[in-house]
Write a structure and sequence with these properties.
binds iron/sulfur cluster, alpha+beta
Length: 349
């Protein structure tokens, strides 16, 4: 479904005010010099000129903590919990839309994650063009094979207003809240040019193509000293995982009530850079950490982003948002730096 509408500047805030009258709307707002998606009660706070949000919009579909089921009678009786809270997420950059498309695929195959899908179907995703480029982003040189497709609409700021591209019936439904008119071909062309320029103007780039990177990264698998050197100073805080829009690892735990017979089972985000991520139980109550060293954890993180999932996704599992670089206090998580160093080391070996 391709349908292009135009919303003049003077109708933009009234449109959002009408939307929040009937719906829960989440959009980027400023938090000092950073941005985060928040529930909107005052539409003047919405900032479509944000560079990047601290956490990706993934959090509304795949929340940091989610109840999976309730149980009683010591687990003899149980019931799944499927949460489907309607929410409109407004102002999503195209790299985050790509990341949601990836997670849609990963949590649908080979087994459908019903908990994810219930909430996924309940949200409406509205993209917006990049007006400010985050200085650590490199989105123009990764996941080039993907055009975002799972969203419901996309707003591009053009002269005098916004070009709204309708992508689904849910996206079409939103136009009843605003004074939209059918867009002209010139307005459609202008929006396309602006979105092309957002790619061209993102100057940080990987020097190699994705196939080459995937192949060479695998060749670094046994270069343990290199990976330890690349991970010097790591706190194992897991921030690089937790801010990543394409990470989807989770841990499952039970929480028992005071009666000791009933409770809930929930999942919470996990991260492969955390020290205990790869700890497994052995016989006799012993534990083993099969990725004990920070370098082996970092290698795993980067292999997941550059090669392990490529067959399933058609390319790298990284969208180049730059959040991991921004979140890392010792500044060692930047995929561009890591990939370039590994590629050069493999070529020299
Ligand atoms: S690895 Fe880093 S740059 Fe790539 S998608 Fe994750 S947070 Fe963004
Ligand atoms: S690479 Fe940086 S963000 Fe990631 S776990 Fe280590 S210190 Fe934390």
């Amino acid at each position: 479904m391709k349908d292009f509408r135009f919303l003049a500047d003077e109708f933009y805030e009234p449109f959002l005010s009408n939307v929040i009258r009937d719906n829960e709307l989440y959009a980027p707002v400023a938090q000092k010099n950073k941005f985060s998606y928040e529930k909107i009660t005052d539409v003047s706070k919405v900032r479509l000129d944000f560079d990047v949000t601290t956490l990706p919009p993934k959090k509304f579909i795949f929340p940091p903590r989610q109840t999976l089921m309730t149980f009683k009678d010591g687990g003899k009786e149980y019931a799944p919990v499927l949460t489907a809270e309607p929410k409109i997420i407004f102002g999503i950059h195209f790299y985050d839309l790509k990341a949601i498309d990836m997670i849609d695929k990963l949590l649908n195959e080979p087994l459908a994650d019903e908990h994810y899908l219930a909430q996924r179907h309940a949200v409406t995703l509205i993209g917006s063009n990049i007006q400010t480029i985050n200085h650590r982003a490199f989105y123009s040189s990764v996941s080039k094979h993907l055009d975002p497709e799972g969203h419901d609409g996309f707003m591009t700021k053009i002269k005098g207003g916004y070009l709204y591209e309708v992508n689904s019936l849910k996206g079409l439904d939103l136009i009843r809240y605003g004074n939209f008119v059918v867009a002209s071909q010139d307005q459609v062309d202008e929006a396309q040019r602006i979105n092309r320029e957002a790619l061209l103007n993102c100057r940080r780039k990987l020097k190699y193509n994705e196939e080459e990177i995937a192949r060479r990264m695998r060749q670094s698998f046994k270069m343990d000293a290199l990976w330890e050197r690349l991970t010097t100073g790591c706190f194992s805080c897991g921030a690089c995982n937790l801010v990543c829009p394409t990470c989807y690892c989770f841990d499952v735990a039970d929480e028992w009530s005071a009666d000791q017979t009933s409770g809930i089972r929930y999942r919470r985000w996990d991260g492969c850079m955390l020290r205990e991520f790869a700890v497994v139980s052995l016989s006799g109550g012993r534990l083993e950490n099969f990725r004990e060293k920070p370098g082996s954890r970092n290698k795993h993180r980067m292999m997941r982003k550059t090669c392990y999932l490529n067959e399933k996704l058609g390319g790298a599992a990284c969208v180049g948002c730059g959040r991991c670089s921004l979140a890392c206090v010792p500044d060692i998580a930047d995929p561009v730096e890591i990939i370039h160093t590994v590629m050069e080391a493999v070529y020299e070996a």
